[in-house]
Specification:
- By secondary structure, the protein is an alpha+beta fold.
- It folds into two domains: 82 residues, Phosphorylase Kinase, domain 1; 174 residues, Transferase(Phosphotransferase) domain 1 (Transferase(Phosphotransferase), domain 1).
- The protein is 35% helix and 18% strand.
- It contains ten helices and ten strands.
- Strands 1-2-3-4-6-5 form a six-stranded antiparallel sheet, covered by helices on one side. The chain has a two-stranded antiparallel ribbon with strand order 7-10. The chain has a two-stranded antiparallel sheet with strand order 8-9.
- The radius of gyration is 19 Å and the shape is globular.
């Protein structure tokens, strides 16, 4: 596809490839850059994959926030399902964490607030992300985060809902997700807490190769999680308290909304 014209956009190069789609850098006739996301050819005949891809586009079309990647158009062309997205130059948050990017320290509050406000917006618009993790947060030079990948999102339930499928990355799932118990926006809040902890400490609070291993560590959560200020003494105590309230194993003790998380981070 590189070097060709697709949907009136010139494809300049390949940016990345995941299990669902390939991301290309594309440009229009005015020289504006975009991220062109194209479903993998091998998945075009898989109705479930097509539905997941299309659903992620549908969710994005209802979101409008400076910390969420913007969707310009989506559809099917020449037997390819595609989405034309805002191009965010720069690595994702996971890549910055792994290389111990020095820019994370002075910009950590900006990143935390941006991610919290983006998730709050998703919830306010009636959805749950359910796949929030550092890989799904793009971080450009400005360090204004951009959330991506709403493929696993669901409509926000009026009360906790038991999910029909088990999906997501085990190390970023809330205990109730792993236990297959009903979930609501507090599952995203827990994932935010894990991501925030990992961004600040350089490693996640809980990790494991399987949901079973992660769940075993959740059984004695406080024993397995080091206080952040042990390794990051300059971290304000209030910020650590916010993160650990997001990480409460008991959902009734966790923050009830991302809006409150953002409010407490600002204060």
């Amino acid at each position: 596809m590189v070097g060709q014209t697709f949907a009136h956009y010139e494809v300049l190069g390949k940016l990345s490839q995941g299990g669902m789609a390939t991301i290309y850098l594309a440009t229009d006739e005015d020289g504006n850059h975009y991220a062109l996301r194209v479903l993998l050819p091998k998945l075009e005949s898989n109705r479930k994959s097509v539905n997941v891809f299309s659903w992620g586009c549908e969710v994005l079309s209802h979101l409008e926030h400076p910390n969420i990647v913007r969707l310009f158009e989506h559809g099917e062309l020449r037997d390819h399902h595609y989405a034309l997205l805002e191009y965010v130059p720069g690595p994702n948050l996971k890549e910055r964490i792994l290389r111990h990017d020095p820019g994370l320290i002075p910009n950590r509050l900006k990143l935390l607030l941006g991610m919290a406000e983006a998730l709050a917006h998703i919830h306010q618009r009636g959805y749950l992300h359910l796949d929030f993790k550092p890989e799904n947060v793009m971080v450009p030079k400005s360090f204004d985060p951009k959330l991506i990948d709403l493929d696993l999102a669901i409509r926000r339930p009026s009360e906790p809902k038991r999910l029909s499928t088990f999906s997501g990355t085990p190390s970023y799932l809330a205990p109730e997700q792993i236990a297959r118990e009903p979930v609501d926006e507090r599952a995203d809040i827990f994932a935010f807490g894990i991501t925030a902890y990992e961004m600040i400490a350089g490693y996640p609070p809980i990790s494991g190769a399987s949901p079973k291993e992660v769940m075993a560590k959740y059984a004695d959560f406080k024993k397995n999680v080091r206080p952040l200020r042990n390794d990051v003494p300059d971290l304000p105590a209030r910020v650590e308290a916010v993160i650990f309230q997001c990480l409460e194993k008991d959902v009734t003790r966790r923050y009830p909304s991302m809006g409150l998380v953002a409010h407490d981070l600002q204060s």
